Each structure stands twice: as C-alpha cells, then as structure tokens.
Amino acid sequence: MHRIGVFGGSFNPIHFGHLLVADDVGEILGLDRTLFVPAAVPPHKISADLAPARHRFHMTALAVRERPGFEACDLELKRPGRSYTVDTLEALAGQGDLHLLIGSETFLDLLSWKDPERVARLARLVVVPRNSAAFDPDGPEVQHVLSTLGLPGFCRTEQAAPPAPILVTASSLPISASDLRRRAREGRSLAYRMPSAVAAYIRRHGLYGVAR
Fold it and tell me: Is the pTM of this model over 0.85?
C-alpha cells in the first residue's frame, strides 16, 4: 500500500520552508505521495490578512507542480464550514497509509483539535521540530499529549510499528509567512523565499495589499 503524506496548513502563502520540510520528510520516510491541503477556513488561524481559499489553493498548486509526488489537494475547499483535519483524513481513508506531517508546536496543541484521538487513529503522526524550538519528546507536556491520545513514545524510523508517532529531524528555512505578507504589502522582494510563480501570482491578483 502506498505511503501518503498529508501536509495541511493555511499556506498563506506557501513558501520554500514548507516545500523543503515536505521534501526532506518524504525522502526520509520514503513517502510515495505528499498531499498539500490548504485549509478553506482554518479553525485556529482566522485573521484579516488571510487570502481567499481559492487563491491559497492556486498558489499551492503552482508551488508543487514541478516536484513529482507532490500534489495540491482541494478537499477542504469543497466542504462548507471550518476545515478540520479529522474530516480530511476520513475522506482520504483507504487511499494508502496516511502520515500526517505536523510541527512540534502543533503537536503540543493537538488536544485542542476536533476529535484528536480519531486523527491519531486515521494517520500516523510525523512530528518535525523547528530548528529554533526546544522540543523534549520525554517531557511532561509531550507525554501528556501521547497518553491522552493513547500513543506510545516516539520512534525515529519508519521501521517501528504503528501507531508509534515518528519524530523526524528535517531541514528547515527561517522563512515566515507573516514576514512574506509584510514584504508583499511593502513592495519588497519575495525572491529566493518562494517559487517565482507564486510571487507572480501574488502580484497579479493583488494579494496581501500588493498594488496591481
């Protein structure tokens, strides 16, 4: 059965940091496909500078088009209301062995998600600590999340049997989507931070306050 990475987020906008992490994780774990899933209505990220979902999806599609195995997934754009990961995983169930890619900060917030126990049953959790973030897999906060979800401790290899979550040290870039939005608004360069097609899309559609 194919191993499928599921990488959700607002992607507001998508940038090389997202792409590099997904590429590294996919290579380390031998994933066959990685689905980038822009949230139509992110439950935890409602903000004034959130670009319309259709624009974020199109930017994501432009960003991943040249990497075999990367795909933009519009499942959450097709559903009304807020975008919940559990619903997306339910829709993808049966397509392969699902691996949910999340950052370490997101993992610590997992218990606030809709039906987190179901999320952990539908997909194997793949947690990627940020280079600048302290993350102790044996610490009390982490152990509380694991025990609440009924999960064993982390492993560092795909060889360990499910449902053990996987801790992956992946390459990362110090790129911030909020900084990119500010740079776009101020008319500053977006080069070397995102695919050129995405930067062109932002300018063409006047996103984030860019004058067309």
Answer: yes
- Name residue 36's beta-bridge partners: 7, 72
Domain that holds residue 171: 3-205
Residue 6 near residue 101 (C-beta atoms within 8 A): yes
Summarize pLDDT for 44-75 with one digit per residue, the tens: 766 778 999 999 999 999 999 999 999 999 99
Cα–Cα–Cα angle for 147, 150, 151, rounded to 5 degrees: 85
CA distances from 121 to 108, 116, 140 (A): 17, 9, 22
Tokens 């062995």 locate to: 97
Look at the chain and report how many structural domains it folds into: 1
Q: What is 100-130 written as a DSSP string?
A: EEEEHHHHHTGGGSSSHHHHHHHSEEEEE--
- State the Rg of the chain over Cα: 17
